[in-house]
Amino acid sequence: MEQQKLNTTIIYVLAILGLLCCCFGGLGFILAGVAYYMAHTKLNEAYLNPEQYTNISGMKTAKTVALVILILNLVYLGATVYRISTIGWDVLMEQSREMMEGYGLEVPE
Questions:
Q1: N or C, which end of the chain has less CB nearby within 10 Å?
Q2: 3-state secondary structure of 38
Q3: For the packed helices 56-87 and 29-48, what is the interaxial angle rounded to 10 degrees?
Q4: Is 40 left (phi over 0), alpha (psi -120 to 50) or beta?
Q5: Which residues pair with 53 in a beta bridge?
Q6: Is residue 108 part of a domain?
Q7: pLDDT band at 107 (very low <50, low <70, confident <90, very high)
Q8: One-letter-per-residue 3-state SS of 51-104
Q9: Residues 35-55 pLDDT 10s
């Protein structure tokens, strides 16, 4: 019987995109969550028939990377929700506008 290689590429791509989306208020948790779920599912399949799969350790690493990025996004999302609930959306947008003006960027009204 031929062994199948576990493909970790899509897991890493989704996790890295999730890390990049962390800057948008922690919304990268969606991509990182999908990556973690996919890795977890593939590992469960591999654990049921370990002789049919290679690269199980690579998938474990991909799952760990996705989990770390998922946790970072959830922490950032929590911080964003906390900031909005304590200072308000309007104050947050005003601070953002002032910061953009400080960098010399044009801010639409």
A1: C
A2: helix
A3: 150
A4: alpha
A5: 4
A6: no
A7: low
A8: HHEECHHHHHHHHHHHHHHHHHHHHHHHHHHHHHHHHCHHHHHHHHHHHHHHCC
A9: 999 999 999 999 998 889 888
| Count of structural domains within the chain | 1
pLDDT for 71-82, tens place per residue? 999 999 999 999
- Angstrom distance (rounded) from CA 89 to CA 28: 20
Q: Tokens 């989704």 correspond to what residue?
A: 14
* Amino acid at the residue 65: V
Domain of residue 65: give its range.
4-102
Q: Is residue 107 part of a domain?
A: no
Measure the CA–CA gap between 30 and 52, rounded to whole angstroms.
30
